[in-house]
Design brief:
Layout: H1 8-18, E1 22-25, E2 28-31, E3 47-50, E4 56-58, E5 66-67, H2 69-75, H3 82-88, H4 109-116, H5 122-127, E6 131-133, E7 136-145, E8 151-158, E9 171-173, E10 190-195, H6 198-206, E11 212-214, H7 225-235, E12 236-242, E13 245-246, E14 249-250, H8 253-260, E15 265-268, H9 280-287, H10 289-297, E16 300-301, E17 323-324, H11 329-335, E18 339-340, E19 344-348, H12 355-368, E20 372-377, H13 382-394, H14 401-411, E21 415-417, H15 427-442, E22 444-450, H16 461-482, E23 485-490, H17 509-513, E24 516-522, E25 530-538, E26 545-552, E27 557-559
Helix pairs in contact: 3-7, 6-9, 9-10, 12-13, 15-16
């Protein structure tokens, strides 16, 4: 149901609601019993809810029940949203709304005169039973009747209202009424026109357009949806949005598209067809009925919210995109100035050759350049990671308490680490949630995840590879959404003289999803303190190759200059260069 957005927490609440134990495995919440057949489940005959979609199944052949959270809400009196409660009239929810006696009121002269001045004929005024409030001829009354002709909602308008002069509201509603669409009782099957204001839907009716309705409480109000959702879903093939044209946008569009776009064809009145007017009524008054009809007939199909017209895409000068310097001049040159925000970097190398050390030094570089960082270590305890980082920041391994305090002052409220000791559920999902939450709350610009494999567990290689691919795909979306750099450290699948991208442990799809692939290893032909950093994939510049780096055991630092390990990481702020190499191919 489009009136409800699934959340994994709802599946867990459902387990508590019915009192059945459940445990998470991968993307499934597996129940010890099926709530329908009440039989205990095993690995093959299980009842489970998918934590991505909310769909459920009982795999017992004699049961086989399936559905979604809406089904469970209905069958087990389980609350998932107030809108669903309204839709199901759970516990008499809708009975709290005011009911009106069946009546038909003749249109009054003040109402007819007011609407005539807005281009609405007496015939349309009487058809929609527009009148004025008893003993208040200046208050126009809009009666909202449902598809059965029952009066369910009443809205009022002060016809004498002058903005900035008149006290009180221009429009208001009768208290405790069920919010529905104005004009429902005059609609037949086929195409539905939805406007923002009542006079706009009346303008469509004046132009001879059938099935024109308007929302009860403005463009932002959605309380009418649960009460009209089924009516729209069953009776209409398409919806035309004729909202107000404001600030270069048409109101109601996103709301209607998000709620009904998956099951209905949704079209929107073209901006040009408003002819500079704000809404349907102004178009009627200034350009006539033909202009209103043309606007509806020319309405264009609304694309998915995830699709944009190319002309609406903002032009970005890639040379101006923020970067985090690697700390190595030659590496920065190949990468186009460093790690570009929005990228996922994959760092790999043989076990014991120092890729985690290089990763933590990249964290130090990010801190030195004024960016906040986050670390996940799947292999080392938190205290060990802290000790290693402190040593790299200060420049030697054995620190006094005062030196440790200096390091802590430097990264306090700027560097965070995943608290793996508190894991209670699937570590992969928990990690992604925590990383995203910390990025948002602490403006994290460099994330180091070391090592991916320890955050993944599955029964078969096929499941493992699928989850790896999904994990990296979500990281890529996260990097772009929050404009930061995410570095993933992974072991190679096998040891051989020359590394290539297919050697990363797990599915090859991992290297397809990232922006940069680098390997960091010793070279048996060189001395023990020499390393090779190879760039084997570089989506931004396309420049590949290798650079020679040097490792110092005492400081745990890596440098591109032999015997030079004295960089000051305790500086409060480092300003990276805004320039990038001239050879970037864009």
């Amino acid at each position: 149901m489009s009136m409800y957005e699934f959340s994994p927490s709802d599946a867990r609440r459902f387990a508590d609601h019915i009192g059945i134990q459940a445990r998470q495995r991968g993307d499934e919440l597996i129940f010890s019993k099926c709530p329908y057949c009440r039989n205990s489940t095993n690995s093959k005959e299980k009842f489970s809810i998918n934590l991505k979609t909310g769909q459920f199944n009982c795999f017992r052949a004699s049961c086989g029940v399936r559905g979604n959270m809406f089904t469970l809400s209905k069958d087990f009196n389980f609350q998932i949203s107030e809108q669903v409660d309204r839709y199901l009239n759970r516990n008499g929810f809708n009975n709290r709304f005011k009911r009106f006696k069946e009546s038909h009121k003749e249109s009054t002269d003040p109402a007819i005169e007011y609407l005539r001045n807005r281009g609405i004929s007496e015939e349309v005024c009487r058809k929609y039973e527009l009148t004025t409030k008893a003993e208040q001829d200046n208050v126009l009354v809009f009666p909202f009747k449902d598809q059965n002709g029952e009066l369910r909602f009443i809205k009022y308008r002060n016809m004498d209202f002058i903005k900035g002069e008149t006290k009180g509201s221009k429009e208001w509603c009768e208290a405790d009424c069920m919010p529905i669409l104005f004009g429902m009782n005059h609609c037949t099957d086929g195409r539905l026109i939805i406007t923002e204001g009542q006079i706009d839907s009346l303008s469509c009716a004046e132009a001879g357009i059938d099935n024109a309705v308007s929302v009860p409480t403005g463009a932002q109000g959605t309380t009418w949806i649960p009460h009209c959702f089924d009516w729209i879903s069953k009776r209409f093939d398409e919806i035309v949005v004729f909202g107000d044209c404001e600030n270069g946008k048409i109101t109601l569009t996103e709301m209607v598209q998000s709620r009904f776009g998956k099951s209905k064809r949704v079209r929107i009145v073209r901006m040009d067809d408003y002819q500079g007017c704000k809404d349907a009524n102004e178009l009627l008054q200034l350009h006539g009925k033909d202009a209103v009809r043309q606007a509806v007939e020319n309405a264009e199909t609304v694309l998915s919210l995830q699709v944009k017209d190319m002309s609406d895409v903002q032009v970005v000068d890639m040379s101006k995109i923020p970067r985090i310097s690697t700390g190595f001049e030659k590496a920065d040159n190949k990468l186009g100035g460093g790690f570009m925000f929005g990228q996922v970097i994959l760092l790999t190398g043989k076990r014991g050759n120092g890729k985690s050390t290089l990763g933590s030094q990249f964290v130090c570089e990010a801190l030195r350049q004024g960016f906040n960082g986050f670390i996940y270590s799947g292999e080392l305890p938190n205290f060990y990671v802290k000790s290693w980082i402190d040593g790299q920041i200060y420049g030697h391994s054995h620190l006094t308490n005062a030196q440790i305090s200096e390091c802590e002052d430097m990264y306090r409220d700027r560097l965070f680490i995943y608290n793996s000791s508190l894991i209670e559920t699937d570590e992969l999902d928990d990690l992604l949630t925590v990383v995203e939450d910390t990025i948002i709350k602490k403006d994290i610009k460099f994330v180091l995840l070391d090592n991916l494999m320890t955050a993944l567990s599955a029964e078969t290689n096929e499941q493992l590879y699928r989850r790896q691919s999904e994990f990296v795909g979500r990281l890529a979306k996260m990097a772009k959404a929050y404009n930061n750099v995410i570095m993933l450290v992974a072991h190679p699948r096998k040891s051989k003289a020359e590394f290539d991208n297919d050697d990363v442990s797990g599915t090859a799809d991992i290297t397809n999803r990232v922006d940069v692939v680098m390997s960091y290893d010793k070279d048996d032909k060189l001395s023990d303190d020499v390393r090779k950093l190879k760039i084997t994939k570089n989506r931004l510049t396309g420049r590949l190759g290798e650079i020679e780096l040097y490792f110092d055991e005492d400081s745990k630092r890596i440098s591109d200059i032999p015997a030079d390990f004295k960089k000051d990481y305790l500086m409060s702020r480092f300003e990276p260069s805004d320039s990038v190499p001239d050879e970037i191919p864009f």
